[in-house]
Every structure is written in structure tokens, then in C-alpha cells.
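Marked as duplicate of an earlier ticket. Keeping the data here for the record.
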Amino acid sequence: MTSLLAGLQELAQKGLTVEYDGVHMILGQGDFVLVVNEGKFGGKPTAIYDLYRVADAKIAEHWDTLETIPPRDAWKNDNGKF
């Protein structure tokens, strides 16, 4: 089992599921791929940025950042996360 999958399963056991609702952008350069997603983390609307380094057609490394998307009436501007 990959460590990425194991990490996601460990979070799910704690009730912190990651759900992907849609992809906003995929950027790739060299061995790196950035995927900008919208989804839910622990049931809350979340912006999810995943950065992968690929080697031999497999994920060699993974980094991510997740940020809760506040209700629209709490936004400080109209730009949104995407």
C-alpha cells in the first residue's frame, strides 16, 4: 500500500475524509504536477492543492495544502479560492 493511500485511510478512520468534487486546474512541468481541487475535508468545503513529483510513472513524493472555504458572506473579497 502506498504511503499516500495509507495516510488517507488513517485520516478516514479519524472521521476526516477527503472528498474531491472537482478539478480547477492541472499544471505540469518536468517531474512535477500541481492539481488544484475543490472538495471537502471532514465535511467542510475545502480548497485542496496537491503537488506531486513523478518518477518511473509513479508518485514519488506528494505535498498538499488544504484550506477551508468560508461561507460566501464571510469572504473578504469576490476573488474566491480559484
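See parent ticket for discussion. The radius of gyration is 14 Å.
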